[in-house]
Design goal:
- The protein has a single domain, classed as Spore Coat Polysaccharide Biosynthesis Protein SpsA, Chain A.
- The chain is 33% helix and 20% strand.
- The protein has six helices and ten strands, in the order E-H-E-E-H-E-E-H-E-E-E-H-E-E-H-H.
- Strand 1, helix 1 and strand 2 form a beta-alpha-beta unit.
- The longest helix is centred in the N-terminal third of the chain and has 18 residues.
- The protein is globular and about 45 Å long.
- The N and C termini lie far apart (33 Å).
Length: 219
C-alpha cells in the first residue's frame, strides 16, 4: 500500500470460490476491501477485514456494483480525513502478485491529473481519447481510479463496456494511464458472460448503448 495515499479495493462478486484467493492476494496491498455482492451471496464467509455491501437487485448490474463500492470507499476515505485516495476495481477472479497494486497506483499518480490507470504489456504512457496515440482497451477486470475525481460508471451499461465507458470518461477528463509491469493473473476471462445466455444477450445491448452514447464502438 502507498505511504501517503491510501488504496482501497472494490470487488463485485456473486461469491465464486476464486474470490477467496483474490482477497487473500490483496490483504497486504490495500488499506481496505469492499465487496459489492449480488445473487444471494452475503460475503459472510470471507475473513475480515472487509466491508460488504449487498445489492438485492434481481438483475446483475456490474456498473451499479462498481458504483456501490466507489460510493462506500468515498465515504470511508472522507471519514478518515483523506483528500486523496486510490481505488482498485478488480474482478473476483483476478490475482494480484505482491507489490503489483503499488506499481499500478504509482503509475496513476505519476501523472497528477490522470483519473484512471490500467495494466498492459506495452510501455507506460498517458492517453487521451482525442489523441493521435493508439487507443488500447483497458483491462476491464483490473484498473485503478483516482478516488477524489468522483468518476462513476454509467449504470445503463449493465454488464458490458462499462469499463470502456469509464476509460473514455477519464480520457475526456484527467486522462488514462496504461501502466507496464503490473503482475496479475485473470483466471476466468468472460466466465460469467459465456456461461449465462442472459448476460450474453445483455452484452449485445450494452454495446449498442455504448455506440449510441459515444458515436462509435469501444474497439
Amino acid at each position: 500500500m502507498t505511504d501517503t495515499i491510501p488504496t482501497y479495493a472494490v470487488i463485485p462478486t456473486e461469491g465464486r470460490p476464486c474470490l477467496h484467493d483474490c482477497v487473500a492476494a490483496l490483504r497486504d496491498q490495500v488499506d481496505g476491501i469492499v465487496l459489492a455482492c449480488n445473487g444471494g451471496y452475503t460475503g459472510r464467509d470471507v475473513a475480515s477485514p472487509v466491508t460488504v455491501r449487498y445489492d438485492p437487485g434481481p438483475v446483475p448490474n456490474i456498473s451499479r456494483w462498481w458504483n456501490t463500492g466507489l460510493d462506500t470507499i468515498s465515504g470511508l476515505a472522507e471519514l478518515k480525513g483523506h483528500d486523496r485516495w486510490n481505488v482498485l476495481v478488480i474482478n473476483d477472479d483476478t490475482i494480484m502478485a505482491p507489490g503489483s497494486v503499488a506499481v499500478l497506483t504509482a503509475g496513476l499518480r505519476d501523472y497528477w491529473a490522470a483519473d484512471l490507470a490500467s495494466p498492459w504489456d506495452g510501455p507506460t504512457i498517458r492517453l487521451w481519447r482525442d489523441s493521435k496515440q493508439p487507443l488500447p482497451r483497458i483491462t476491464g477486470w483490473c484498473f485503478a481510479l483516482r478516488g477524489e475525481s468522483g468518476l462513476r460508471a454509467d449504470e445503463e451499461l449493465v454488464w458490458w463496456a462499462g469499463d470502456n465507458d469509464l476509460d473514455w470518461q477519464a480520457r475526456q477528463g484527467g486522462g488514462t494511464v496504461t501502466v507496464s509491469g503490473v503482475d496479475h493473473q485473470h483466471l476466468h476471462p468472460n466466465g460469467y458472460t459465456v456461461a449465462r445466455p442472459d448476460l450474453t444477450e445483455q452484452a449485445g445491448k450494452d454495446m449498442a448503448r455504448f455506440v449510441e452514447k459515444w458515436g462509435r464502438p469501444a474497439w
